[in-house]
Amino acid sequence: MIKVEDWAEIRRLHRAEAMPIKAIARRMGVSKNTVKSALAADAPPKYQRASKGSIVDEAEPQIRKLLAEFPDMPATVIAERIGWQRSLTVLKERVRLLRPHYKPVDPSRTTYQPGELAQCDLWFPPVKVPVGAGHRASPPVLVMVSGYSRWLMARMLPSRTAADLFAGHWALLSHLGAVPKTLVWDNESAIGQWKQGKPQLTADATAFRGALGIGIVQCKPGDPEAKGLVERANGYLETSFLPGRSFTSPHDFNGQLADWLTKANARHHRRIECRPADRLQGDLAAMVALPPIAPLVGWRTSTRLSRDHYVRVASCDYSVHPSAIGRLVEVVADLSQVSVTCAGHLVARHERSWAIHQTITDPAHQHAAAVLRGRRSRQATGLAEVEVEQRRLSDYDAVLGIEGVA
Q1: Distance separating alpha carbons of residues 21 and 5, to the nearest angstrom
Q2: Using N-to-C axis directions, what is the helix angle for 21-28 and 4-15, rounded to 10°?
Q3: Residue 243: is its pLDDT beyond 80?
Q4: Maximum Cα interatomic distance, the chain, rounded to a whole number of Å
Q5: C-alpha atoms less than 13 angstroms from C-alpha of 353 in its C-beta half-sphere
Q6: Calpha distance 310→332 (Å, rounded)
Q7: Predicted local distance difference test score (pLDDT) of residue 288
Q8: Which of 69, 143, 222, 338 has CA 20 to 30 A from 162's CA?
Q9: DSSP 3-state of 214
Q10: Residue 52 above 80 pLDDT?
Q11: Please, are residues 118 and 146 in contact by the beta-carbon 8 Å criterion?
């Protein structure tokens, strides 16, 4: 083994005097491989005495076998199972070293890299919001927290269905201007489920992450700490945003929430010792760029319009101009409106209803339907399109033999 002083001199000759390896080997009287090893080593060489082994080495295979099946088994029980008769101290030390291989430790602090991930969850605020038609409800709020900057995003959604959930995701991400490399979710039904010990994403979740070019991680069931950032954000919203507020509609809720989030992201965050706004640019720079083409989100379906000229989105029916009856129509609904097109022409547009089981009718569609029904009725009685001559009163006077009265 090379001496420490020789190691130091080799590195000095190479770094300070730019001497080639071959010249250093000749001056120091060592081989070129020795010089290369010294230059590759960042720390000085140390003498290490060869290990003589331990009395517990022979029992290690038995210890590993027990830990593989029972990671939490105490060292005292292991000693009993393997018939250990010697010092319990050395056995406990070996078990302490081996246990992490079978039961990884759960670190108390997690750090995140810029752009790495955002934790997501649905928060159901404990308030009733007027949603129209005399109904009050507590619609879900999609909450997202970026791991690195702690930037908080949230928006109330009409429902927790996949169509509305991913439309909400896209609304928040497009407003942010970039996409975290990974979205962390629990076992929300629109995202996926754990089956046979493995996470399985839904087709909608797979399509969404593929369009964005990112990953979606599903936490194991019963592991709330895996997304502790967003769980704490839910509590923060409940204790700091809700108190003292009232809402006239979901749109009013989202408007007040957007104003509050601007202030919340400008406040000092205790864990990162700065404001989320101070870290946002670094976070965005490391994220994935928004795709050039927006992903297909929301409600999308094609159907042949029936005689009742209504289409259903979620649990609500929306009127369509009756001129499209019997023809193929395209129905597209986002978080705010429902649109129906036929052969590229718009035949219906409605504001999205947040109340369930409603029938929304456009007066223009209702009038057009009445006109068509009247025309159909006249055709059925043979009176349609028949032009009747209007006779002059003098003709009737002549028939009755009545002369004109002075």
Answers
A1: 17
A2: 140
A3: yes
A4: 150
A5: 19
A6: 14
A7: 94
A8: 222
A9: coil
A10: no
A11: yes
Structure tokens at 180: 């975290």
Q: Is residue 350 within a helix (H) or strand (E), and if so which, with residue range? A: strand 345-351
Strand 182-185 and strand 215-218: the pairing is parallel
Residues 6+ apart with CB under 8 A from 206: none
Within the chain, how many helices (H) and strands (E) appear?
13, 18
> What confidence tier does 391 reach under pLDDT thresholds 50, 70, 90?
low
Contact in structure between 59 and 82 (CB atoms under 8 Å): yes
Contact 205, 173 (CB under 8 A): no
The alpha carbon dihedral of 308, 311, 314, 316 has a sign of: negative
Lookup: tokens for 398: 């002549």
**Total-model pTM:** 0.67
CA distances 107 to 95, 102, 110, Å, are: 19, 15, 7
Q: Which amino acid is at 26?
A: R
- Count of residues in the chain: 406
Which residues, including other chains, have CB under 8 Å from residue 345's CB and lie 6 or more apart?
none
At 84, phi and psi to the nearest 5? -75, 125
Q: Angle of helix 60-69 relative to helix 88-102, nearest 10 degrees?
A: 50
- Element (H or E) spanning 68, and its range? helix 60-69
| pLDDT of the residue at 393 | 62
343 contacts: CB under 8 Å, gap ≥ 6: 327
* Sign of the CA dihedral with 84 first, then 86, 90, and 92 last: positive
CA distance 316 to 225: 38
Task: Place 166 in a pLDDT band, splitting at 50, 70 and 90.
Answer: very high
d(CA 236, CA 244): 14
Concatenated DSSP letters for 137-196?
Answer: E---EEEEEETTT--EEEEE-S-SSHHHHHHHHHHHHHHHTEE-SEEEE---TTTEEEET
Tokens representing residue 141 in the block: 């709020």
The gap from C-alpha 244 to its chain's centroid, in whole angstroms, comes to: 29
Which two structure tokens, joined as six digits, stand for 338?
Answer: 């429902």
Q: At which residue do the structure tokens 């979620």 appear?
A: 314
What is the chain's mean pLDDT, rounded? 88
